[in-house]
Structures are given as structure tokens and as C-alpha cells.
Write a structure and sequence with these properties.
By secondary structure, the chain is of the alpha+beta class. The chain has four helices and seven strands, in the order αβαβββαβββα.
């Protein structure tokens, strides 16, 4: 395999892993919300999927004792749980390869070699970028509401 192809395929694998984490994070975040009751019932009767339309936070109610008796308090589940998604800050991949000139004269071929059997150690480091602006704004806005 050409060295450039090897490095590109490792980079693609890291991006796919980060994308899977992003998708799982969005799914987890949205699990803290539900469709509004009337709209959800109307959509179910119409045979439409549950998603779509405005969502409201899932809430949990507590009875809190006080001087004037118990008082019921409803809190969004989102405020009670950690909802930061997992993300790679940095991924470092170390490869041990033997480098040879490509037969067509176009670059280098990389052949995997077991550790300790010679070869060249190549280290690829991938760093996470900033989150999208939309995700940051939604998270900031949700925090201000709570």
C-alpha cells in the first residue's frame, strides 16, 4: 500500500470514529426531550413518526418538604444529568512499517512490520477542532434557560 493511502485511510478511520461519537452524542442529548403531548398524539393518529415539531424537556417531579408542608417541584432531566458528549481531543496512531520505493516510481510503499523487527516508526496525530457554532449556541441557550 502506498504510504499516502495508508495515512489517508487511518485519517478516514479516525474521522468515522469521531462522527459516530458525534451522532451518539446528539442522540443522547435529544433523549432528554419529548414531543409535546397533543402534537405527539395527533402525529401518532396520522401515522407519522414521533420526531418532528417542537420538543419539550422531559421533566421529573419531586416532593420537597418545607415549613408549610410538601411542595412539588418539576425539574428538567437535562439539568440533573451530565450530558457532555464524548469526543477525542487527540488521537495518536503509531505504525511500524518498512518503507520501499514504489515499483512505479511514484512515492513510497509501506509494508507493516512487527515491532522489534526493524522498520520505521511513523506517528500520526489527529487533533479535535472546535465544535460547530450551532451546537455551542444551543448548549449556551439551554444553560441560560435553566
Amino acid at each position: 500500500m502506498k504510504l499516502e493511502e495508508l495515512m489517508a485511510s487511518v485519517g478516514d478511520a479516525v474521522q468515522q470514529a469521531q462522527s459516530a461519537l458525534d451522532q451518539a452524542g446528539v442522540s443522547q442529548y435529544l433523549s432528554y426531550f419529548q414531543p409535546q403531548a397533543r402534537q405527539a398524539a395527533a402525529r401518532m393518529q396520522a401515522g407519522e413518526p414521533e420526531t418532528g415539531g417542537p420538543l419539550r424537556p422531559r421533566e421529573i417531579s419531586f416532593l420537597l418538604p418545607g415549613k408549610q408542608g410538601e411542595r412539588q417541584v418539576s425539574l428538567p432531566v437535562l439539568a440533573l444529568s451530565g450530558h457532555s458528549r464524548m469526543a477525542f481531543d487527540q488521537v495518536t496512531v503509531q505504525l511500524n512499517v518498512a518503507l520501499e520505493a514504489a515499483p512505479d516510481g511514484g512515492g513510497l510503499e509501506a509494508v507493516p512490520v512487527a515491532q522489534g523487527e526493524g522498520g520505521h516508526k511513523i506517528e500520526l496525530t489527529f487533533r479535535r477542532g472546535e465544535p460547530s457554532e450551532a451546537v455551542s449556541r444551543i448548549s449556551d441557550g439551554a444553560g441560560q434557560l435553566l
